[in-house]
Known about the structure:
The chain is α/β, with parallel strands linked by helices. It folds into three domains: about 10-260 and about 435-460, Rossmann fold (3-Layer(aba) Sandwich); about 270-430, Rossmann fold (3-Layer(aba) Sandwich); about 475-500. It has 19 helices and 13 strands. The protein has helices spanning about 5-15, 30-45, 80-85, 95-100, 100-115, 115-125, 140-145, 190-220, 225-230, 270-280, 300-310, 340-345, 360-370, 380-390, 405-415, 420-430, 440-450, 465-470, 475-504, and strands at about 20-25, 50-55, 65-70, 130-135, 150-155, 235-240, 255, 285-290, 315-320, 335, 350-355, 370-375, 395. It starts with a helix and ends with a helix.
Amino acid sequence: MKLILPFIISFNIALALGSEILYLMPVATKSHRNVFDPLIFELAKRNHHITIVSPYASPNFEPHQNVREIRLAYNIDSQMFTQDLFSNFETRSLISGFLPLKYVLAPCCESYLQNPQVKQILKQRKHFDLVIVSNVYNDCALATAPLFGSIIIMQSATSLIPWTYSSIPQPPSFIPLNVISMQSKMNLIQRLNNAVSWIVVQIIMRYDYGSYIQGTIEKNLAENPILSEAEKKVSLILTNADPVLTSPRPSVPTIQDVGGMQCKKAKPVPKELEEFIQTAGNDGFIMFSLGSFAQSKSMPKTLVKDLLQAFSRLKQNVIWKYEEELEDLPSNVKISKWLPQRDLLGHPKIRIFITHGGMLSLQESIYNAVPLVAIPLFAEQPGNAARVVEIGIGIKLDFQNISGISMYEAINRVLDDKSYVVNMKKYSAIFNDFIENQVDKAAYWVEYVIRHKGAGHLQTGKEELNFFQYFLLDVIVFILCISYIFAYVLAKIVQLIVRKKNRK
């Protein structure tokens, strides 16, 4: 007992003082903060000290004494990105979508590495008890994470990124690549497409994009941290996956799904919006938003005009997140540069959500049981929209074929076909059926990894295997060689027997 008592006292003192945690998200959108902030706030409440490196300050809670923000000067120009996206949508492919990423994201890496406060932390060689890295296109931050601390966690704003180095087997035979429009039940041609796409993305992200980002790091940092080595040091991955939008797949203890942390009960909407909603009576309203990054104002003006004409024919009011003023709006259409999305989705008179299909928007829709019209644009949105169609909670429209007529027909189909409401209520019940609060679950696993010094006992043998070993290619080659030798020897024996018989 005398030997145990000092340990208990020291452990409780450490717990009371909290841990020093560094949050790295140099590449992020405003919506990503909606995923990370609930966990950050919970950890701060538990007396941990958080330093956040991000281009965006938190919009979700007041400054906390345990939270320090390092604001980066550069982030991706969302308006320029969206204009390029819409103007080249018809010719856009998987390869053309991924190859330019290195040029788009390298400046984010440079802004992060050249930030005076980040450089000061590196110079002081400050050691953090834990480093949490955003999993979405933050390879630059992941590579440098070991310079700040020996324990690393990745947190994803979506489900598991396909090219993430992890112990989870992701066979393309039944796990659809989330950056293409593919459902989980695939025929031969679809499985071929899924497998080829998976290989292409792996090659681009690991050998083209990864090499370019590695070169950017070497140019801006005296140390030479290696991305592939940092990947092997990740103790845990927290994903924003959930049992509805993420199709069933294998898992391991080092992957914890905590999807929907940002979902909350709706608050009353602003008075101006409420008054507009009430003018439609029992017909209710439809919300239209392309998220926090893509901008509706960059859509072709002819398409905007067609959509407004289609909306004017509806009985429902339409609330559209549109980033600039529009003239001659129909009386049943209201535009705003910003919308309280979570509160509008929880409003009793909402009928449909027209969305870009981002993970957060879909989760908030399912949380509130609001049927969908999904218009996927980029990243994981095509896969999300395919899942929406697969489980029957909404309709997908392809942006390159969208028109006022197709939008009007899609809206009326969802309104008239009650199966969408029935299915959405079913999956909303599944989505909300958790054994524990997702924020508490995420905080538990963060503290678990800290308590157990990286939780090495959870790691599988995958970390020590190369590509050929992981896919058993060495075993297959060995078996083929043995089979060939056996067949060769057997053939020679048969030849000898035949020759002896012929001589007789």
